[in-house]
Amino acid sequence: MLRCSSQLKESVAIFISRKKKLGRFRDIISSVMENEAENKVYVHYNHSDSCSSARWTARESYRFMYDRAWQDVIDFYSNVVNGRLTLSTLFGTETSIHDDSETVEVSDEKGERSGRWERVTFKIIISYNGGAFDGWQKQPGLNTVQEIVERSLGRFVDEKKAQLLKEKSKPLEGCAVVAGRTDKGVSAIRQVCSFYTWRKDVKPWDIEDAINSVAPGKLRVVSVSEVSRVFHPNFSAKWRHYLYIFPLSNQEIEKQSCENKKEVENFISDGNYNEQRNGYLENIGWENVENLIISDNMGLEAANKPTRFSVCRVNQLLQQLEGKLLSYKMFARDTKASRNIGPPTECFMYHARAAEARIPCSVNDHGEGREVMCVELVANRFLRKMVRVLVATSIREAAAGAEEDALLKLMGATCRRATAPPAPPDGLCLVDVGYTEFDPQNCLLS
To answer: Is 296 annotated as catalytic?
Structure first.
């Protein structure tokens, strides 16, 4: 008995000693990590072209993008969603949105099917104001479009599914499959989703009334139609159509021209920035440089960098992407740049243009409206945040006076920090999703 007690005390003493050593070890590791974090210097992506000195840093680009009258853009999209305005009024033209419903109409084979093939599938086209929702995808505790739509569809599910949801103590909701998930703040004019049920008494107008009654003024059903059972909003789509509205400042409006080379050349000819940057790097030592990214806290931003850009130049940069199948992994976010599994990063750009336009302005309008730049992109697919990064990078490259193939060269970059941070989501809108071959006549910009 005494021997067991002695062994127990010895074991407890060993355990306490090891625990103390482990605690000291953790403190040492934590101290080392803190010191390393303080000594690290992150350097911006090393652009090797002639206008690298004139190119904005990540923080400069972020400030340039967000310091805008975004409320006017949000109000404009809200009016479009509610049918008070159309996108065509941006340019004083009337461009009709295509209608490809004939390609997904109900199959003639329906009467010959039985069992699971007897289900009825509906194609639902909805329009919503992105500023009123936390994105499309349903998330706990957030006000999302998917949650509202599926809650509205709950009354149309069949009895078998309703009983199953009840047994699992889940809310009575339908399942909506969408063409593409939008982020928080991103609006949509013709977002496409589908819903199927085995009930035969459900009519398209019933679904429309149910969804419209949930969030009036924020979400509106454009149309509901019965389609083929093989229709899938995402996999059946052949192209996606996006529009980005970027408000212009008074200074930019006054200085708009096809080239702003003079300002860029004046900056590049001034060697103070490069001398200051090189001197700093010599002092810190290259052993502390990682990933070729400069920290925005280093205070090396030059006050005389270009402060405006040319819309015409943005248009020239974007046109270089048209008709090409390219990997846009450098323009994506929240996805792995290099991966062996998952969908590819190649996208085919059908249409990429930029032009000036006007939207109604809530302050000091005088009937003229606010000057904006509209970027229109149509591709077979888009990666996460790809449109917003592409817009921000195009503006940055145009301001820096980069060559027309600057965006193409960035495709081969080795780090995503070569591209600009994503532009604000408030300016982005999903215009339409197509299920027929792309027709350039349906675009807003020619």
So the answer is: no
Q: What is the CA radius of gyration of the chain?
A: 28
Beta bridge mates, 219: 128
Cα–Cα distances in angstroms (integers) from residue 427 to residues 57, 185, 246, 391, in the given order: 21, 8, 6, 10
C-alpha span between 87 and 74 (Å, rounded): 13
If you search the block for the tokens 């941006």, which residue do you land on?
Answer: 90
**CA of 435: how far to CAs of 103, 146, 188, 442, in Å?**
7, 22, 17, 13
Instruction: Give residue-wise pLDDT tens across range 29-65.
Output: 666 555 554 454 444 566 666 777 888 888 999 999 9
Contact criterion met (CB below 8 Å) for 138 and 177: no
Place of tokens 């982005």: 428
How many CB atoms are closer than 10 A to CB 117?
A: 12
- The pLDDT tens digits for 391-415 are 999 999 999 998 999 999 999 888 8
| Residue 17 token pair | 């000693």
Please name the residues in contact with 155: beta carbons below 8 A apart, sequence gap of 6 or more: 172, 210
Which entry of 75, 134, 158, 183 is annotated as an active-site residue?
Answer: 183
Cα 380 from Cα 328, distance rounded (Å)? 13
Q: What tokens appear for 369 in the block?
A: 């409206």
Helix (H) or strand (E) holding 379: strand 370-379
| Residues 135 and 129 sit within 8 Å (Cβ to Cβ) | no
What is the pTM (predicted TM-score) of this model?
0.78
Q: Is the pLDDT assigned to residue 276 strictly greater than 50? A: no
Contact 354, 387 (CB under 8 A): no
Contact 264, 401 (CB under 8 A): yes
Q: Across-strand partners of 105?
A: 227
